[in-house]
Design a protein that fits this description.
The protein is α/β, with parallel strands linked by helices and 285 residues long. It folds into 2 domains: 205 residues, no CATH class; 59 residues, no CATH class. The protein contains 7 helices and 18 strands. The strands form 6 sheets. The protein has a 5-stranded mixed β-sheet, with helices on both faces. The protein has a 4-stranded parallel β-sheet with strand order 1-13-17-18. It has a 3-stranded parallel β-sheet with strand order 14-15-16, with no helix packed on it. Helix 6 links the parallel strand 17 and strand 18.
């Protein structure tokens, strides 16, 4: 799960998915820290993460001490964060937890594997907005994108940013270049600064998380005839919208929802505050 900005609303969406949108035993963790009570940057309260009994979760030892409820620690992992060693636990009743996990791909992949070995049929990874590694094909099979409005001045600005994410997750997939495809340039990552040197080139990235160019830079890609591809594509599973802006009035939820649904006709788009939880058929639960 990725957010387009800080305070995008990922925790609210995660709580809704865990409560309404999954069946069977699930695991959950964070590539960073989530569920803390207060945002020290924006000076606003943050929602806690609520887990049903039986949910598996991975979090650092200090974060576990700040959690509330009853759980059983099942295992210690080799991952160590600034908040302590990451532990695997199972909620024995409804719990309110703070999640803190490793911030690197290998560490998170190992933690996800341990959650699966503990019995999780699916693992949900709450990714910090500035750590797109959470959307790596080495970690995830699909991505849930939470489109926030915090720090954005208008709906047009939110839409412009969203288009950049859509471009990223709709890049065509190609196989590893062979001898008959010598013109494909393989890069581990792509940033705005690299674009002037790539005019007219065809570039292959590992997956969408390696495409780090800004929303405005996509116009440069088109004008300079740069063709972008990925070796491993990720499905964009759903988009959730949030018009909340700290210390400012919210954007129009109805207007944003209409704009995004018109733009993303092949992706499920939700606004939990405006519509509540809906299943894929559009029936409210």
């Amino acid at each position: 799960m990725l957010g387009t900005c800080k305070n995008a609303g990922k925790t609210t969406v995660l709580n809704a998915i865990l409560k309404h949108g999954v069946s069977g035993t699930v695991g959950v963790t964070s590539i960073g820290r989530d569920g803390e009570p207060y945002d020290v940057v924006e000076k606003v309260a943050k929602p806690s993460i609520s887990l049903e009994s039986g949910t598996l979760f991975a979090t650092a030892s200090e974060s576990l001490e700040r959690s509330r409820g009853r759980w059983t620690v099942l295992a210690e992992t080799s991952a160590v964060t600034p908040l302590g060693r990451v532990l695997i636990a199972r909620a024995e009743q409804e719990c309110t937890v703070e999640l803190a996990g490793p911030s690197d791909v290998e560490g998170m992949r190992n933690v996800a594997t341990l959650l699966e070995e503990a019995g999780a049929h699916a693992v949900y990874l709450d990714g910090a907005f500035d750590r797109v590694a959470a959307g790596s094909s080495r970690l995830a099979d699909a991505v849930v994108l939470v489109v926030g409005s915090a720090g954005r001045s208008s709906i047009d600005e939110v839409i412009s940013e969203l288009k950049g994410y859509l471009n990223r997750y709709h890049l065509p997939e190609v196989s590893v270049p062979t001898d008959d495809q010598p013109d494909l340039l393989q890069l581990n990552a792509l940033t705005d600064e690299q674009l002037p040197e790539l005019e007219g080139r065809s570039v292959v990235l590992p997956d969408p998380s390696a495409c780090l160019i800004s929303p405005a830079a996509w116009r440069w890609v088109g004008r300079r005839k740069i063709q972008l591809h990925v070796r491993h594509q990720l499905k964009l599973e759903a988009i959730f919208l949030n018009t909340f802006r700290p210390h400012l009035s919210p954007l129009s939820a109805e207007a944003l929802l209409n704009r995004v649904r018109e733009l993303c006709q092949n992706v499920a788009v939700f606004d939990l505050k405006l519509e509540g939880w809906f299943d894929r058929a559009g029936a409210e639960n």
